[in-house]
Amino acid sequence: MDLSETPEMAAxxxxxxxxxxxxxxxxxxxxxxDVLAWQRELIAAGYAARTIPREYGGYxxxxxxxxSRIIAEEFIAAGAPRGMAGQGISMLVPTLLEVGSEEQKARxxxxxxxxxxxxxxxxxxxxxxxxxxxLQTKAVEDGNDFIISGSKIWTSTAHMAQMMxxxxxxxxxxAKHEGISYMLFPMxxxxxxxxxxxxxxxxxxxxxxxxxDVRVPQSAVxxxxxxxxxxxxxxxxxxxxxxxxxxxxxxxxxxxxxxxxSETVDGQRVIDNPVFRDRLMQLQGRVxxxxxxxxxLLTSQITREPAGLAAMIVKLQGCELNHQLAALxxxxxxELGILYTDGPHLRAKGRxxxxxxxDLGLIIGGGTAQIQKNIIxxxxxxxxxxxxxAAA
Amino acid sequence: MDFALTSDQKLMQESLSRTxxxxxxxxxxxxxxxxxxxxGGDVWQAVADFGLTGIVIPEEHGGLGLTMLDAALASEALxxxxxxxxxxxxxxxPLALMGGGTAEQQAEWLPKLASGxxxxxxxxxxxxxxxxxxxxxxxxxxKLTGKALFVPGGLAxxxxxxxxxxxxxxxxxxxxxxxxxSLMPGLxxxxxLAELAFDxxxxxxxxxxxxxxxxxxxxxxxxIAADSLGAAQVMLDKAVAYAKERRQFDRVIGSFQAVKHMCxxxxxxxxxxxxxxxxxxxxxxxxxxxxSLMAAHAKALTSEVGRFVARTxxxxxxxxxITDLLGLHFWFKRLGLNRQLLGxxxxxxxxxxxxxxxxx
Lengths: 392, 360
Description:
heterodimer, A: Butyryl-CoA Dehydrogenase, subunit A, domain 3, globular, B: Butyryl-CoA Dehydrogenase, subunit A, domain 3, four-stranded antiparallel beta sheet
């Protein structure tokens, strides 16, 4: 246990702060004015794609828990946007690094990191949610190609993405988990239709994607034919890490504290109400515990020791905590918390309300809270699986 | 540069756990709990032989000179073993002497504390958790008058650290005239609490004032949090083990999602506490600006999670969970005491808010 700041680290902190100070005109309220240019700058400085090898377009640094922490802290303090964090960067890139061919790594990682290629994830299907391995979208071999037919659902950014990483059934006769392949293909391939899926937020954060005789070359397969389930599990691991990102939670807590200091009821600040203040302190304790759990995970990544339970709980606890933070913000707003669309009394452009609703989706998506509890109890605590019901 | 225990720390904790498995077995704890004439001298001796009594005392005074994180790891092991040891005084006594004692006082007491020949106890509840039943101590011309409640180890301690209502700290000998001690019979019978009454009882003032009292408070919070972590982890482990063995409806009950999700929820709540306790202990020595806030949150969060784990793990055991035979209740009650001692979570969180300027 040693997190002390050496002169070297203090100098690094100064560098990050200097970088952000010098670019105050490039971002406002947590958003970059030119997203792609900002991303390129961050990679060049080592504040995004930090540990991705240079040969694939990353910054090429060794994992370093203290520098990662300093970067996160300084970005939060400055209210500066972090690098892009779409599914391509957070999920596909680590997967390709783990199991991709040399050609796939060289071709896809660089442009993905720079934000030039936006990806969407084709996993869930109407009949394959928690039971993802039951997916039925099929890819039938035809010469050097596969012909894909079927449909996907919950495909965020499908309407903007140039590419999809997708799970399809290539060996229908094989066992459920062994007949799946993981493929990469362009979204403008003939036969793909994207329909927006409107949600309770009023927006369409997700889509449905339909495949009618979509022709994809066999070279699109990552990690080997029939190996898709294992490739996908590598990706899901990264997704769960992303969905429970403690840095994002910390930033939300900071915004909540500001909200409670600035909002007043009958002239009294919300923070001065002991009930609200105690709820805030309860959540702060949890945010801190997840922050340090995150530092512990970073350390175990560096030392390559299995992180065990500390990793398995991140998605469950992190998503719930984010939802609770939004819930407290809405309660702190009281009747103002009812407002959602533009108007003179609306706060933070309705962001708290949007988060409150959208985060419920995150609690469900990426492996529901109940699936997470199965994983924690079965893999983390070694408890037996639910027996399969006898065939009817 | 990392957020992890060193191999020495892991080794120390494992070795202490093995020592306690013998010295503080459930049978041994049960006897201590049921017999007020049992002073637990053999357990204390085992802990002293291990070196624990000198854990934070500098080597030149005969101690191990270790950090608060090491002390927290020891506290965690003691909580796991529901050990009948008043460990808070073991750490707070030396901290008071080192932070506010003269060279003479340190030379007189630290070697005796390090060897375990003398036990220290800290009577600091009133200025931290608040005064109940009119308790409180006033200091006048080197004499203390009043009452201090809820003093762990206060019955047997040969050295008392006493806080007065003005925030000053005093050092009192166990044989000081005008000192009366009585047992406060509690739910947690693994640690005995004392009520101390002072009647013009002589005591030597310690320097350091409110800042030193805050240090003792932070150390106490970290140690209680670590004790809860250890006790809650054992309750979870026992619940999981039981659920893997107990059969109903021709299945082990751990295969029912209703049961395994209870275990998953306990694990998910408890695991982040570990990192927070580590950091709070580390901050006590190495990040003074954050130390108080982290100690407060560690204390408050382990109190909440401790209560959740205590009741849930008991429920997983079904009817057996509430029997005396199983002994699970020793951990349940240990967590109950930890929640209230030196302030329940509501009070501790209010202090946390104040520390950040969020409360008046």
